[in-house]
């Protein structure tokens, strides 16, 4: 095989990259900037003040939650989409809704999912998967969680499974970093150092998530959830609830 043919084959295999970059960019309007993803009251409770505190949060909560709950469910949803098993997709959507019992976390997920779904419909109008899920959402049979819409998006774009898991995990950490700049008043440089520290462990969290069977999936963090639930009645806050 000539070098030109090899280069063309490589480009063909990576045809999903430009679209993935578009839908993963902060410019993609999902409304994530308006939510703290539960971090606001937790940061106040734990008196977070620095990028090091954010790194500790990644290690003790955000990373394990990705490995034990979010990434496994992303995989289950995508497998169900591939199998055209929409009953299971909706069942998984309902399970995700139940796991996110604190309104701050649940509503942020639904808000992001709704925004992403709306724009995906405009970008890829002919997608039967998007239309099927949109119809279920419109009739109240689907909750519209961001994780489910992300799985739809990755399958629509033919993103390899590993790249989809990595991308979703990166976006999750980046959302916390974006919120921390306002909450902790850390510099953009400190925020990037914290993100880099989280990304060093991201491959391990992704690898661990692949070993989690559905009956064992879950992440129990009652103190974090309780702090998140207090957000709605907090005296002052930077993010919506």
From TrEMBL:
Keywords: Chaperone, Cytoplasm, Nickel insertion. Its main location: cytoplasm. Coiled coil: none annotated. Pfam families: UreF. It is found in: Cytoplasm. The keyword Magnesium does not apply. Belongs to the UreF family. HAMAP family: UreF. PANTHER family: UREASE ACCESSORY PROTEIN F. UreD, UreF and UreG form a complex that acts as a GTP-hydrolysis-dependent molecular chaperone, activating the urease apoprotein by helping to assemble the nickel containing metallocenter of UreC. The UreE protein probably delivers the nickel. Required for maturation of urease via the functional incorporation of the urease nickel metallocenter. This is Urease accessory protein UreF. The gene is ureF.
């Amino acid at each position: 095989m000539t070098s030109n043919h090899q280069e063309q084959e490589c480009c063909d295999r990576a045809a999903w990259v430009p679209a993935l970059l578009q839908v993963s960019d902060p410019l993609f309007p999902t409304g994530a900037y308006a939510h703290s993803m539960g971090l606001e009251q937790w940061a106040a409770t734990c008196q977070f003040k620095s990028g090091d505190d954010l790194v500790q949060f990644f290690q003790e909560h955000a990373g394990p939650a990705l490995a034990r709950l979010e990434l496994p469910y992303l995989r289950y949803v995508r497998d169900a989409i591939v199998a055209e098993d929409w009953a299971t997709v909706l069942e998984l959507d309902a399970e995700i809704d139940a796991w996110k019992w604190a309104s701050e976390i649940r509503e942020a997920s639904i808000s992001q999912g709704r925004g992403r779904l709306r724009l995906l419909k405009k970008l890829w109008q002919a997608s039967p998967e998007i239309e099927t899920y949109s119809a279920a959402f419109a009739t109240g049979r689907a909750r519209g969680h961001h994780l489910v819409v992300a799985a739809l998006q990755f399958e629509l774009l033919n993103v390899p499974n590993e790249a989809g898991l990595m991308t979703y995990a990166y976006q999750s950490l980046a959302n916390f970093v974006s919120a921390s700049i306002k909450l902790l008043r850390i510099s953009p440089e400190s925020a990037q150092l914290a993100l880099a520290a989280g990304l060093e462990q991201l491959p391990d969290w992704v690898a661990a998530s692949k070993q989690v069977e559905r009956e064992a999936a879950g992440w129990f963090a009652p103190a974090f959830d309780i702090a998140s639930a207090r957000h709605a009645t907090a005296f002052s806050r930077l993010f919506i609830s």
